[in-house]
Amino acid sequence: MLTRAVRDRVGEYRRRMRERGLRPLQVWVPDVRTPEFAAQAHAQSVLVAQADEGEQGFVEA
Known about the structure:
The protein is built from 3 helices and no strands. By secondary structure, it is mostly helical. It has one domain (about 1-60). About 0% of the residues are buried.
């Protein structure tokens, strides 16, 4: 059965990764495709662009 074969391959892959000292980890990140993310990124970029030279030097360092 195909499902069993996939399960076996995934299990084998995970076993090998654990042998290498790694562990599985699920990470939730912002969805950069949303309009809300684009608006927030733009708002933050405007604030950075308006920063005075001293603050900008710190950001770029």
